[in-house]
Amino acid sequence: MCSLGFARSLGFALIPLATCCIVANLLLFFPDGQMDFVKDNHLTKYVWFFMGIGGGGIAMFIPAITFLCMGKCANSCGTESCAMCGSVLAALIGLVGSGYCFFISAVALLNGPFCFTSLGWRSPFESDGPKYLFARESWSECIQPVHIVEWNVTLLSIMLGLSTLEFLICVIQIVSGLVNAVCRPCCYKQEYSLNA
Question: What is the number of structural domains in the chain?
Answer without folding.
Answer: 1
